[in-house]
Amino acid sequence: MFTYILILLICILLSTIISRFIPSLSVPIVQIAIGSLIAIIHSEFSIELDPHTFLVMFIAPLLFRDGKNADKRSLWKQRRNILLMALALVIATVILVGLIINKLIPSISLPSAFALAAALSPTDYVAVSVLSKKISLPRKVLHLIEGEGLMNDASGLVSFKFALAAALTGTFSLFDATISFFIVSIGGIIAGLVLEHILIKFELWIRSLGMEDITVEILLQILTPFIIYLVSEEAFKVSGILAVVVAGMVYSLSSKKLKFRNARLNAVSENTWSVLAYVLNGLIFIIVGLQLPNIIKIAFYEATINNFEAIIDVLLITLSLLTLRYLWVLFMYKFGDNACKAEKRSVKFHAALLTSLSGVRGAVTLATVLSIPLALENGEPFPERTLILFLSVGVILTTLLITTFILPLFANKNIPKETDYLQIMNKAQIKVWANTINKLKLEIDNKKYINMIISEYKYRIHQLKRGNSYYKNWNRSSKEEKKWMLICFKKEIENTRKMLQENKIDESTAYFYEKSVRNKIKLMSSVEGFSLIFKEALMRISSLIFNIKKLRYILRGIENKKRSEQQLKDLAMKDLYSTNAKYLIQYVKSIITPENEETLKKIILYYQGVYWVASKPILGKASKYEKKKIQIKAMQLERNTIQSLFENGDITWNIASELRKNLNYIESDVLR
């Protein structure tokens, strides 16, 4: 088992790397492909997908975290739409799509068709949350599908339970099903509220004993979704899914009110849950991939299944799911949502289309259909079970492909400017930093360090204006910008080699600088990066020979000399960065034309930032202390500016909170 877990973790890491070099493939698609490949190569590598274990191990903690991080205000504003999607749409899907399935494939009985439609009704929140990070969706649409995904698992599972019971026994009571549905749903909400309050009281009691241990509190957080899900399902017989979602929201709201919360606990909690969610998300999709080959293989060799007709049925069922979803959302926006009635028709149609295409099915659907027993209560084989599994797998793959390749084509068009949260966030951040720079310029003392801090703020502003975050992110660059950046990187290498030939720099400085540029090229373009692997190998051999020559200096053990040599190397690297930055700025200015002006201005901004960073002096301990004092003062000015902008109505509460959070991270790094 340990070997299996280790392999799965390596595969998760590998999938992220592959997705980085092939951005058009989403991480879930890559992970499913890796899982399928493992199952094909090593048929004995199998993990049983027991539905109950799957929900408690994977879905419960992820939904707890998402409930904790959810935008409660936005969810409350769209509560009517979310309920219509998570409850009413599920029921409509079970009935209408079930009838369509029975009509397309008469061999699947009506109760079994309803069971399949119920399994296909809930969207996969895990897949949506992963894909939404790479797709620009309007915030209203994003909040709607997030709220729907948090709640529709419960309604889908309850509907499946009653439809499956009807298929197994041949009897069905609409009244009993309706009463049971409301008891399970409302009971799950109440259970989540009560159990989370009990656990919060327990945490307070632990702290009152003097056990103010962050490790213990984080462990209690991690155990919370498992405890709440199991108690709700096993003891109270209500929806554990709704219970953990509500518990996450209650925990988030209570942590803001209780005074014992501290910044370190919040930072550790967020980082821990981030890693845990990353691993669980990866495991879910790889496990799904492990199941696919066997299901497809069984269906392929099943004599009663016409493979071509089955594929057509998959496409028709997927089309019926998306069409119903589109019409439902359009009707909801037109008649049910007061906020949307005033919007243009084109905006409504576009929002409905995005919401429809975002309806990806995933692991919950597969886990649900795998719970279908092999035989009926009378001992006869469950009719068309293999075909039902194949149809489910087909719909999962089709919706994932649609969300990965078709949704981005529509998501990036006609999005109102006010919905671009990142753009609003960047503008607000630039305004805060610019205001901080103006206030720092009024300071009289410590001008040397103030000018250094001002330069750093200017560098951050230029990074944001280029479309990057405070830290470099080459993924956000356009194809045109990447093309020009690659040209400039090669120019850097050419100029470095020219300076080496002219004896203006030494061999070691040239090697390490060129290595840094080659790493940037790898980040920017996998093709260009791979083309330099051979050259890099030669350069490494050259470096090895160079280091062997230096061995006599190391053996001498003269510590002071080594330190002074390292300082000289650092200064040489900074000079080379500065020189190349000035050279590239002049080069780019010389090739600007009206066609490429907008792109090349971004390139110039990048090299101006490099020049400013390279121009910073290397500080000693005493100087670093003086600089840190100015940094702390500057961050206080930032806080004052954020509060002032919020009070004046220039930024919203959410933007102000995000700015403060980013500032807290930077401050913790400075004070380290």
From TrEMBL:
Membrane topology of the entry: Multi-pass membrane protein
Gene Ontology terms, MF aspect: potassium:proton antiporter activity; sodium:proton antiporter activity
Localisation per UniProt entry: Cell membrane
Transmembrane helix as UniProt keyword: yes
GO CC annotations on file: plasma membrane
Function noted in UniProt: Na(+)/H(+) antiporter that extrudes sodium in exchange for external protons.
Family affiliation: Belongs to the monovalent cation:proton antiporter 1 (CPA1) transporter (TC 2.A.36) family.
UniProt-recorded name of the protein: Na+/H+ antiporter
Organism encoding this protein: Clostridium beijerinckii (Clostridium MP)
